[in-house]
Amino acid sequence: MDTEQIILGLLLLLLVGGVAYYLLLHGSQSLRPDPATRRQADLRRQSETQRDFQRVFSMTRAQGKEGLIKRWMDRTGCDRTEAMRLATEEWRRDNR
Q: Do 60 and 68 meet the contact criterion of CB atoms below 8 Å apart?
């Protein structure tokens, strides 16, 4: 290999690396959903979690449900929806 081929190879390697870096930074931003779409997905997940929680704990009084949610929120420091999901998962795990 002569010097020209080595230099051309290094330039080509730098070019490919630069393009990959650019696509990594800017290409992933276009794949992210806009805030409105993200909010809709969060609401869909939240309502699905709430329905699941209500279905699992349908025979539990409202005070018991609120206490269960509060306990999970205090224990893990999570939000209300996550507390419902965790309580549902624990119930399913214990009742298999």
A: yes
Round to whole Å and give the CA distance between 30 and 4: 38
Model pTM greater than 0.85?
Answer: no
CA distance linking residue 2 with residue 85, whole number of Å: 64
- H/E run at residue 94: helix 80-94
In Å, how far are 48, 54, 55, 68, 93 from 84, measured between CA atoms? 11, 9, 11, 8, 14
Burial of 84 (0-12, 13-18, 19+ CB in 10 A): buried
As a whole number of angstroms, the distance between CA 89 and CA 85 comes to 6
How do residues 33-86 score in pLDDT, each as one tens digit? 566 666 666 667 678 888 899 999 999 999 999 999 999 999 999 999 899 999
- Report how far Cα 26 is from the mean position of its chain's Cα atoms: 21
d(CA 51, CA 66): 15
Rounded to 5°, the CA angle 9-15-17 comes to 100
